[in-house]
Amino acid sequence: MKGRKQKISKDSSHQNVGAEHRGYGGAPTFIWITENNEVTPPHEEGLLGKILDPYNLNEAYLRVVWNKGSHGVDKMEVGMLRDYLAAHGSDLIKSIKSGKYRPNPARRVEIPKDKTSTRPLGIPTVVDRFIQQAIHQVLSPIYECQFSDNSFGFRPKRSTHKALHRCKRYISEGNRYAIDMDMEKFFDTVNHSKLIEILSRTINDNRVLSLIHKYLNAGVVVEHKFEATEQGVPQGGPFKPTVEQHHAQ
């Protein structure tokens, strides 16, 4: 891409894109286009090319804006993402393509788990949420078909209520017992190397694996102090459900 190739507006150059995304509460559409107002095709092949496809990035941007959420360690609010991408979007994509992009550490906060305990939540920067969401949107359909039909956590169009309906069906079929298990601090102790090895069985693009590994090793900031993340997956990132769910299968 040469010259000015970014445009941010409420109306996409392709009408079907604009119509598709109006359900996000009127969030402004973000898309890379050429000087001739034509959507720039992806220049990368493989899985990374799908992640960096302009339409996938546009969807990721809209989803991050729709989800809102708190700021990360750089204090950038969601409302600032539009202007950031207008000024730095091309450089951001180039750094991801070249393998030079380095994610920021997540901001660690504690949220209530029950009346007596809390659980850690890692809040990525808005830019990292944008990238992670783009990754999630490509990986999720790939892994959905691999997951157990009896798995309901962190999956689209599934919920606790649907899990209960499944249990009700099993009861009506004559089953009398159910086992409730909770592996303490499971996601906090995920082995990074093992997780990447599992993902590599399906993902054949090393650039994507490398990017995911960088997010796993990005670390966290707790009360202004950096802490390395040599194991575990921070709970709170957009692509966390996909990689964690697959590791848990």
What can you see in these coordinates?
The protein has 249 residues and is of the alpha+beta class. 42% of the residues lie in helices and 11% in strands. The protein is built from nine helices and six strands. The strands form two sheets. It has a four-stranded mixed sheet, with no helix packed on it. Helix 3 crosses helix 5, helix 5 (126-144) packs across helix 9 (240-248) and helix 7 (192-200) runs antiparallel to helix 8 (206-216). The longest helix has 19 residues, at 126-144. The radius of gyration is 20 Å and the shape is globular. The model is unreliable at 1-27, 33-39 and 243-249 (pLDDT under 50).
Précis, in short:
This protein has 249 residues and is an alpha+beta fold.
List its traits.
249 residues; four-stranded mixed sheet; disordered N terminus; alpha+beta; single chain
Helix content: 40-55%
- What's the gyration radius in Å? 20 Å
The unreliable regions are 1-27, 33-39, 243-249
Element pattern in H and E: EHEHHHEEHHHHEEH
- Number-wise, the strands total 6
Count of alpha and pi helical runs = 9
